[in-house]
Amino acid sequence: MKRVKRRQSYRDDLVALTAFAAKDKPDAAAKLRLAIDDQVSNLADPNFPRRKGRVPGTRELVAHENYIVILIEDDATVEVINVVHSRQQYP
Fold first, then answer.
1. I need a surface site. Which of 18, 32, 68, 89 has the fewest CB within 10 A?
2. pLDDT tens readout for residues 17-39
3. Which residues of the chain have pLDDT under 70?
4. What is the pTM of this model?
5. What is the largest CA-CA distance in the chain?
6. Letter string b/e over residues 22-31, b meaning 16 or more CB atoms within 10 A of that residue's CB
7. What angle do CA 65, 68, 24 make, to 5 degrees?
8. All domains of the chain, ordered by start, with CATH?
């Protein structure tokens, strides 16, 4: 199992997307936040699916149909950098 480290930038993104979604549907926003973070926790398993990132040296996790988590990893650690909307231009 790998260690999952969440950068502050990821935490900030998660708070921002939750706040935006909560304007219309507070309960759904809270569930979305938990669902995304649960998927991130699963990254400790090296066999949990992730794909090659659009930025060299990164990987991506499709944590929800509308949200992609950006990460870097080595043999021991997964470092979660950001979470972006799937329609958001990235990088």
1. 89
2. 999 999 999 999 999 999 999 99
3. none
4. 0.95
5. 41
6. eeeeeeebee
7. 60
8. 3-85 (3.30.2310.20)
